[in-house]
Amino acid sequence: MDLSSESVKRTLTKYKFRDVAIEELKKVHRMHPEMVPQAGTYTFSDSTQKDLLKLVGNIPVRYQGRSYNLPILMWLLDSFPFTPPICLLRPTPNMVIREGKHVDARGRIYLPGLHNWDHPKSTVNGLLTEMIAKFEEEPPLSSKNSGDGKDPTELLAYVSKLQVSEGGVKPDRPIIKVTVIGGGDLGMATVMSLLAKGSVDKLVFIDLPDCATKGGTMDMEIFNLPKVEVSKDLASSAGSKVVVVTANAWSNEQSYVGVVQTNVDLYRGVIPTVTRLSPQAVLLIASQPVDIMTHVAWRQSGLPPTRVIGAGCNLDSERLNYILNITLNTHITGLQGWVIGEMSENKVAVMSSVGSEMIQASSSTKPLTDRAFEILKGKGQRSWSVGLSLADIAHSILMDQRKTHSVSTLAQGWGGIGVEVFLSLPCVLGATGSTRLAVMALGSEEDSKVRESVASLTSFLAQLRM
Prior knowledge:
It comes from Albula goreensis. InterPro entries: L-lactate/malate_DH, Lactate/malate_DH_C, Lactate/malate_DH_N, Lactate_DH/Glyco_Ohase_4_C, NAD(P)-bd_dom_sf, UBQ-conjugating_enzyme/RWD, UEV_N. Helix content is about 30%, strand content about 25%. The termini are far apart. With about 475 residues, it is an alpha/beta fold. The radius of gyration is 26 Å and the shape is elongated. The strands form six sheets. It has a six-stranded parallel sheet with strand order 11-10-9-12-13-14, sandwiched between helices. A four-stranded antiparallel sheet has the order 1-2-3-4. The protein has a three-stranded antiparallel sheet with strand order 17-18-19. Strand 1 and strand 2 (about 50-65) form a beta hairpin.
């Protein structure tokens, strides 16, 4: 391996473990002489740059009895070999990347060996061996269809629209992609909860530079979770089925209206862009105050209200039902509890019949509901709790479950509400968004609280510059 070029030698002087790195490079050369070291400048996701070494070359992959040379690139961080390389595909102009469990849309490679890197047990040679084995199972590149009569299997074109399984060859299903915007504790909790649900093929985690909810994306990038792409660019959200917004803006304002206005201004630079990039997505809002910000997102997106929902009282409703079922055994009677209205002290708890589209509350159930609601008031809403709730809502949409959730939705026309205002109401969630259930009969106290929320939200919205 030629390490004598001036640019390579100059770059090597900046490596913390230079001698160990050189020894590792020599081992790579003995087994993979086609991998050539070069000096270059790597741009990190936060736009910072660093002069680093990279290994450039092809790896041999066999598929369906034929041999292919897949071009790859491995950036070696300055703490190499004690940190894993950043591995990328290098598609030529006539190649396209096939996203999969080991490769994302930008060609970044994800492998167990990278995730569990531990030098000296972990080596580049071992990584290349693993890479070849994984790509023989699931080829990451295919050729563009040129229509010029060339061999359709050249450069794996045959598998560009097919996937191989134990049952033979079957059509690829669409990639399920979700974007989470906002890099704070809630964003982190939502990402981890979505991964745990297992319904996402690709998860983009976007940390906005002018956002108050920051801090988690660096750790997410360091530990290189499968399926997760960390980004600061809204363009990486393109093609998402659900976009979850947890971001809140910095503000030095003293007034509550001023604080919320900073969030509205933040949204102005986010919502129209993500809507344009993912025109079929459902927007799931968790920024605060959630009813107001869901309304803002609906206005700014131009989407139908069925595809803009807020986290609202879903967590409270799930907790209420748990308390009713476990503590008070209401699952025996077929009753279900809901927390509806504004996400504030004015939210109210009501009961319904499980499985009924016409939801009706009964005066005989009110003592039961009140008792459960008092227990519920002692439960705080931490980031992990809300993240689990958001993942559950997203799962219902992605899997088209037609499950009912109490989410913030356009309440106009419900129960005589004549103005455009968002409140939590029971909605059936599926692939196309939300379907609001019919009006439920409220007691005088509950109805009064809902009306009070409608008036206060309408007044507050009038003070904001959309």
